[in-house]
């Protein structure tokens, strides 16, 4: 800061990201994020550009790299057929959600950086024998 410049404070310490914790809101947010992403993943009626533009923002940077060349025509599912169930909450930064589809149960793995960060898809794992 230049000498003589006014200094502004809001009275609070500048805190970094908070470590994630689990509560019912977090659990439901993980399930909702997984179901929404899988529903978009299964939208095979969309041209690739639109499909990817809608799906990519729901994915981590690594998942975007991993899935950017997927052709939606090759995605085996056509529909989500039931409710998601949180099956892995070992870490408050990683979640696994099982979601029934027309070809079996997919597992969507998500991650988040901290309590305020959104859940982002890391991986769509198809049922045994699919994908």
Question: Strand-residue fraction?
Answer: 15-25%
Mean pLDDT rating = 86
Instruction: Report how far apart the termini are.
Output: 56 Å
Order of helices and strands: HHHEEEE
Number of helical stretches of at least 4 residues: 3
Report on the biggest sheet. 4 strands, antiparallel
Rg from Cα: 19 Å
Are there runs of 5+ residues with pLDDT below 50, and where? 1-16
Secondary-structure content class: alpha+beta
Your description of this structure?
A four-stranded antiparallel β-sheet has the order 1-2-3-4, covered by helices on one side. By secondary structure, the protein is an alpha+beta fold. Strand 2 (94-101) and strand 3 form a beta hairpin. The protein is globular and about 40 Å long. The protein contains three helices and four strands; from the N terminus they run H-H-H-E-E-E-E. Residues 1-16 have low confidence and may be disordered.
Topology (SSEs and partners):
Elements: H1 24-41, H2 48-55, H3 61-67, E1 85-91, E2 94-101, E3 104-111, E4 120-125
Antiparallel strand pairs: 1-2, 2-3, 3-4
In short, what is this structure?
By secondary structure, the chain is α+β, with helices and mostly antiparallel strands. The radius of gyration is 19 Å and the shape is globular. Mean pLDDT is 86; it is low at 1-16.
Notable characteristics:
single chain, 131 residues, alpha+beta, 4 strands, globular, disordered N terminus
